[in-house]
Amino acid sequence: MISLPLLRQSSAPGSAQAPEPLGADRHRRPSRLVVALALTAGLAMVAATAWADTVPDGTLPSALSLRVVEVTRSAMADAGDARIEVLPGQLDPRLRLAPCQQIDAYLPPGSTPWGRTRVGLRCTSGPVAWNVYLPVTVKVWRKAIVSTTALPAGTALSASDLQLAEVDVAGSSSPVYTETSRLLGRRLINPVGPGLPVRGDNLRVRQWFAAGDKVTLVYKGDGFEASTDGQAINSGLEGQSVRVRVGSGQVITGMPTGENRVEVRS
């Protein structure tokens, strides 16, 4: 998607080129990262003297490329201790843009600086206004549990299958894990290549108990904990709420947290 005035090819100095995109983590895309629509302090402005004519290989001038990196990094303040790598792409070398003395680099509304995305470039001081999108790849490097070897679908994970390593987690929004203990015994629903992070969407949903099973219902609050017995009305699947009928006949909704265990938090 490129919106700009095209110029006729000219030998006069001063016309240029441009265009387009950019993570677990949750993150949790970590979790998914949120972009301040126009950045906290507004658009990042770049003074590029007479950026114009053609850029034969589609590469940005170094000053503008640096601002693209800065704008992207500024939107990732909540990345924690992750190591961020921003790789600006190239513009379409067929484009010809009007000369421009000042170019704003910005993240388009709704964009997320994660994986493959884009940064907008907008001429705000020149004979003709134009706006293009530059492809950008953002890598988010952090420690995560990865496979030690190729693991086929159906594998029940063991300690020898897993290790902690620094990897780019921005390739998917599915969460990664940092503790081996949370993965032991879990089964894969799809294969995981060697050295790749084991993500939430690689795992079969764990069933803690079946409908009709006796369960312990645990009530938790600030400074107190109480429990009672009950019967599960539906299967206890990890991450999904379950209904439990207690002795009085009342039906309580909680979250399965272990073998025949349901927690209710107040």
From TrEMBL:
Native organism taxonomy: Bacteria, Pseudomonadati, Pseudomonadota, Betaproteobacteria, Burkholderiales
All residue ranges annotated as the SAF domain in the record: 142-204
One of the GO BP terms on file: bacterial-type flagellum assembly
Subcellular location: Periplasm
The keyword Signal is annotated on this UniProt entry: yes
Xref: InterPro entries: Flagellar_FlgA, FlgA_N, SAF, SAF_FlgA
Protein name, as recorded: Flagella basal body P-ring formation protein FlgA
Record has Protein transport as a keyword: no
Keywords: Cell projection, Cilium, Flagellum, Periplasm, Signal
Any GO CC annotation of this UniProt entry: periplasmic space
Name of one Pfam family that matches: ChapFlgA
Predominant subcellular localization, coarse grouping: periplasm
Signal peptide coordinates: none
Organism for this UniProt entry: Sphaerotilus montanus
